[in-house]
Design goal:
single chain; 10 strands; globular
Length: about 230
Amino acid sequence: MALPLRHELKFLVTRTQLEVLRQVIAPVLHLDPNAVKNGGSYFIRSLYFDTVYDDALYDKIAGVKDRDKYRMRIYNMSDREVFMECKTKVGNLISKRSVKIARDLAEQLMAGDPAGLENTQSGLLRDVYREMRTRLLHPVVLVDYEREAYVHPAEEVRITFDMRVRSGLNSIDLFNPRVPTVPVLPNDETILEVKYNRVLPPYIRDLISFACPEAVQSAVSKYTLCRQYEGKE
């Protein structure tokens, strides 16, 4: 089955630009239901996986066009919903597969044990099994941030502000709220992401250009930022 591919634009914005963006998009876009439910924003913790040779890290740094990135994700530090995900980049387009897993399975995968996944009905989990067996895929870094998300029905536009991005350094303890973390962006910068299906509606593009006339599209990666302390770049 073909993956549904979407565009993804990324920018680094200052605190001032963030405030202006909030003001100009509020009349046009609506807060994501999860943001509304949590008072305007919600907390995301992702545990990223990589191969024994750090292929995901080095492929990103090298700008390899087609690549996969595996992660486990929870929201607001709750283990009631744990997701295993694979984000795929195909040229300039992206796609994401996601499957909900039990905490017991999450703990098993965090320990490096994919036993049993070869028989799962989930294609994503079978891929995880293959990668863990053949390329020694394993957890490498925690990525924490607060997300404010807005949506618009035209082209399924989704605009997110990822704020206060922090690295869990050497810990892979996904469910531990007391893991020490450090900020990875200077001056409290925010990562702006704009996702859409085929064409970004011109009026939304104009709003972003008006609010952030000097913003330059970036290849910024929260995963890469959070591994910068390992001296691998």
